[in-house]
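Handout, tutorial session.
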Amino acid sequence: MILDKDSAKKTAELLLQINAIKLSPESPFTWASGWKSPIYCDNRILLSFPEIRNYIKAEMARQIQHLYGTPDVIAGVATGAIGLGILVADIMELPFIYVRPQPKSHGRKNQIEGFLEPGKTVVVVEDLISTGKSSLNAVTALETAGARVMGMMAIFTYGFDIARENFSKNAVALHTLSDYTYLINQAAAINYLREEQLQTLLAWKNAPDQWKP
């Protein structure tokens, strides 16, 4: 869910500005799931742009505060949201932890890195939501460790139906700074796309698991 429309538009504009969003309808990307996609989102690149990362961290902190008040802990999902989560935790002056996809196979075999006391409230920070599977895996790990997960804040979501279903089924509140609709609208507004590219991106969004170039 989008909390602030102006912020959603600006976030989309900034991601396009630094090429965090790669649009390539003619030469699509292949995701780990095997899906072919005309778009690829790499929000980690924003860490290399101080002004933009400062805007993103401040906006995420503001929206977390508005939605949840002040949680006890900020948790980032490895690996893409570790840097972002640290920035948000720092500006909110809160402890930070991060969650691996699975426990380490050596050492202490941790899945959660950092100190987490059972019963503490946690807001999870993500960089990107596609199907939501990996993000919700982190929530499960936190809850298993005794955390009270209040919700999740991410930079961007593709807005897939399967993601909405997964978050609803797991009763996890998801808010994002921006989404696919704002991104496409902004890309069209600044002539980032040709008309045929825009139509391709809209068609892909309707059936990403079936789309072929």
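The second record follows below. Compare its token runs with those of the first.
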Amino acid sequence: MKSGLRRALLLGRRRPRLSGAGSPTAIRGDGYEFVELREYVAGDDPRRIDWAATARAGALQTRVVLEDVALTLAAIVDHSESMRLGRRRALTIAAQEAIQTWYSAAETDDRCIRITGRGVYAPPGLRGPRSALVCSNVEGEEPFVLRDVLEAARCALPLGSALLVISDFFELTNDFNALLHRLPQRYDCTVLIARDPWFNDLPLRGFVTMQDAEKKAQCRVFVGAHERDRYLRAVREREGALRRRFENAGWRTGILREEDGEGSLLAAFGIPSTIA
């Protein structure tokens, strides 16, 4: 599964290969073996500008070089109160399973980065799968603000990074559209949309007291057959609309299922899980 996920990332559309159908062993990027000069395009590393060639050509010229295959694996995980809900266990537990699987694709020369309310970081001196164990800890983080962490990713991650975002996306309003489209222009973006714990059944009947998971506000409502049907239709429509919105923006999409975080991530890449 680790090798399958890594291969899927290396062959992703954000990591173009020099050779044809066969090998992802070399990519155009920040390496050491010179390949060619070409005209500078937005997003190129300014350190690769060849000033002598630029003077001769009269336009900015960039050195294209080969690098060893290496990944930057970045992750954003929603740890707000609504993600702590679940029928048998919290969605955050499934999210952490997915994150551990995500980072397990890393090898020695890869980078693992976690983006939180406190910033973008990787533990000093750690690379590859070892860093995932530290990065996956969400205790003591700042409150989760979706726009802030997405903007941090856009500004700080290296070009071509593989970015995974896991959330229920209750903060996702219409004014996120530009940001959602901008991120896949720079990164290989994957999203896992947390499935409502009561996606298949709302086990409430009669007059019940309901509480907002985030704001803790309470209200007393009547839940009958009609209300349960409306709820089930609404959660399905919302999940489908979210998925279409991300896909239209260029994201790879999947659904985070409470019972199987690892399988949820692998399914987003079309990789079979060992768990039925």
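Points raised in discussion: The chain has eight helices and eleven strands.
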